[in-house]
Amino acid sequence: MSRVLLTGATGYIGSHVAVELVNAGYEVIGVDNFSNSTPKVLDGIEKIIGKRIDFMEVDCTDCNAFAKVFEQFPDIEAAIHFAAYKAVGESVAEPLKYFKNNLRSFENLVELMVNKAKGANIVFSSSATVYGQPALEDLPIKEELPYQPASSPYARTKQIAEGILEDCVKAYSNLNGIVLRYFNPIGAHPSAHIGELPNGVPNNLVPFITQTAAGIRECLSVFGNDYNTPDGSCIRDYIYVVDLAKAHVKAVDKMLQEGIRWNVFNLGTGKGLSVLELVNAFIKATGVNLNYKIAGRRPGDVEQYWADPAKANRELGWSAETPIEEVLLSAWKWQQTL
């Protein structure tokens, strides 16, 4: 079966995609530098699939070190690029760190795939933040919606990287690209062997919820209750990480089987949930009470967005169907193993 390279393979989404690729019959070579993960994630993947994935500890911004992966595994036919810093607030404070890491690693991947891989098929892990703050009449968001000004340096790195891939697909006849724009991934594998594992204070809402429920954090901060939304808190499209992972397998299938040159897909549920609705759904699903307070708005946060996933439903034959209560229970089950 075809070999797929995963950068950021021990990260939150990368680890779940590794499991789904192996389940679908693919060979995986994972790389990561453990900047926001640990080698223990490889143990978790092994517990689920019953074998160790091939893995190399590599910093993707170091092109010479990265090239050794292709020397050792010359049979790579596709790559999925996850290796990136992803904290919106940190990117506002440290934009150069984000530009240097997120763009250099991706440029190196594209160059190596074009020149050294058996097949130059790249799936790029992008984000709904490329849309900026859409107008209300543009919700739910379709893929054709033009970029709005980026609300954070993190979002800008995603916009720029999408452009790099699109330009390179036009220039290099052997290169094909699919961009997957995620909305908000949450939850954990049902086995509770892998899940979201933030280093230090979580930047994402659900790990903060579960850590607060577990008594690790004293109080959950809800950033802003004065947005132009029904309950005043931000609205997001929360998608189960396992559903999201399966979309990556569908994208790789499509590239290798149909020779797709270029395409872009939104990955979401098509439903918006506010932060306060998510908090209440967690309390209802788990029966655990949550101590939370309203805090000021967070820099770089977008008020509301949710996906129109019709294109991915139609062309990838994929949909996100796991109920939110089940997703939140998976996150709580994972938290209790930590």
Tell me what the structure shows.
The chain has eleven helices and 13 strands. It is of the alpha/beta class and 338 residues long. The protein has a domain of 215 residues: 3-Layer(aba) Sandwich (Rossmann fold), CATH 3.40.50. The chain is globular. The two termini are 35 Å apart. The model has no long low-confidence stretch (mean pLDDT 97).
Keywords:
alpha/beta, seven-stranded parallel sheet, Rossmann fold, 11 helices, two-stranded parallel ribbon, globular
What's this model, at a glance?
With 338 residues, this protein is α/β, with parallel strands linked by helices. The protein contains eleven helices and 13 strands.
CATH superfamily of the domain at 3-186 and 238-268: NAD(P)-binding Rossmann-like Domain
- Strand arrangement, largest sheet? 3-2-1-4-5-6-11
Spell the H/E element sequence. Answer: EHEHEHEHHEHEEHEEEHEEHEHH
Q: Count the DSSP helices.
A: 11
Backbone structural class: alpha/beta
List low-confidence stretches.
none
Radius of gyration: 19 Å
DSSP E strands, number: 13
Biggest sheet: strands, sense, closure?
7 strands, parallel
User: What is the CATH class of the domain at 3-186 and 238-268?
Assistant: Alpha Beta
